[in-house]
Specification:
mainly alpha
Length: 126
């Protein structure tokens, strides 16, 4: 039953990744016609980072198929990518200083977690 759910999730994420990448292509093509190049580039980056988030989550599911363990690192990388995506909007939208601080704190915590887990994984492999 669990394997079937993971297969369904993997198939759904694969479709989402394909549609998301198609959106990136459309955003790049739209750059030719956009008046505000900065805003157009930000939209392309947002679409591209969303695609990366989806692919990282898909990597977690496919890693489960290979190892029968949930890999935490791709989830943390997806979290950092989401936070970077949020940082890109700071110059475009009005943002409260508290939100900026919390976003930067989240990036720091996620980065520390990735380093810590990477060290644990390297220590386990010796």
């Amino acid at each position: 039953m669990t394997l079937g759910i993971y297969l369904l999730i993997a198939a759904s994420l694969s479709l989402l990744a394909i549609f998301s990448f198609y959106d990136v292509i459309l955003q790049v093509v739209a750059l030719v016609q956009v008046e505000d190049m900065t805003q157009g580039i930000l939209e392309v980056l947002h679409a591209l980072l969303l695609t990366l988030i989806i692919v990282e989550i898909l990597e977690t599911v496919t890693a489960y198929f290979r190892t029968n363990r949930v890999q935490v690192t791709p989830i943390l990388i997806a979290g950092i990518t989401a936070m970077v995506r949020r940082v890109l909007t700071f110059g475009v939208e009005p943002v409260e200083p508290f939100d900026i601080g919390m976003t930067l704190a989240a990036i720091l915590v996620l980065t520390i977690a990735i380093v810590f887990i990477g060290r644990l994984e390297r220590a386990d492999s010796y």
